[in-house]
UniProtKB/TrEMBL annotation:
<dbReference type="Pfam" id="PF00383">
    <property type="entry name" value="dCMP_cyt_deam_1"/>
</dbReference>
<dbReference type="InterPro" id="IPR016193">
    <property type="entry name" value="Cytidine_deaminase-like"/>
</dbReference>
<dbReference type="GO" id="GO:0003824">
    <property type="term" value="F:catalytic activity"/>
</dbReference>
<feature type="domain" description="CMP/dCMP-type deaminase">
    <location>
        <begin position="4"/>
        <end position="130"/>
    </location>
</feature>
<dbReference type="InterPro" id="IPR002125">
    <property type="entry name" value="CMP_dCMP_dom"/>
</dbReference>
<protein>
    <recommendedName>
        <fullName>CMP/dCMP-type deaminase domain-containing protein</fullName>
    </recommendedName>
</protein>
Amino acid sequence: MCSNTDGRYMSLATEEASKSPITNFQLGCIAVVSGKIVARGCNNYRTYSKDGMIGQSCSCHAEISVLRKCMKQNITKKINIYVARVSTMGDMLCSAPCIDCFLKMKEFNIRSIIYIDHSGNTVKRNFDDFHTSHTTSGKKAILTKRVKCL
């Protein structure tokens, strides 16, 4: 069940999404530890990082952007992740993390993931209860060789 505090953090994740230069898929993410925002981010066009967290992708996902910021601060435990996706019309869309982001999150001690489901509801899941097989359209394009990664 989502609290008023969860709703406030989702609003902040939505604000982060509006900062994304990728206008057709604007995603924002907030990382919270013990009630304090420790990192914010949005999806962007970065496709490589020396830390290895960005790769084989057409963009840096909002979740990865936030996890990289957490890693730089040595924050790897008890993290709550809030993810919001906004359409070009300003509507909230499904923002459940993709399989690649989920696998990266496994390297951290994520407590819960809060996101918008396909019905437009805000959902809060314990990380251990969250499962996905969703592959993004960008990843599918790479896998089918419609797009080449540099």
